[in-house]
Amino acid sequence: MICLQLFLSFLQIGAFSFGGGYAAMPLIEEQVITIHQWITADTFADLVTIAEMTPGPIAINAATFVGTQVAGTSGAIAATLGCILPSCVFVTLLAFLYTRFRGLSLLQKTLASLRPAVVAMIAKAGVTILISAFFVGGVISAEPAQINLRMICYFAVALLLLRRAKFHPILVMVLCGVCETLVCAATRLMG
User: Can you give the pTM of this predicted structure?
Assistant: First the structure.
């Protein structure tokens, strides 16, 4: 039964996540945290990190991660199939229609009108990830105990390395991971 729920949830995500993996993140968050409570907000932040770091589309990686967490290998297969099935059907249909009607101005205007919605969905995913990283429990709070200063520092340094020093994104992710590992190891040794 859980595999069917995973399949149907990720079928919805796959069917309505226009604009790629980052645009799908708010939909994934809604399904796996809010509706089904399969994972927590902190685990969702880890999911985004793992899905970004592993090869392949982020939405499919996220589906596989959630499926594995919820129901093991069969859950991963069900969630992944649910995520990719709508894309396979839509792309096949759209390829046929686009090659046939690509010259129509109505089609070009429709495609142009989808761009702002996709940008908004990607921005929402980014803000959600920042909130879950910067605030304990993913809830915005002005209390100092609820603010994760270490993650804010990692973000600032990573942004500087990416924008100013032009470091490769994978190198920046590895450096942040190494720093966090060292900080955790030092904390355990001291505590």
Answer: 0.61
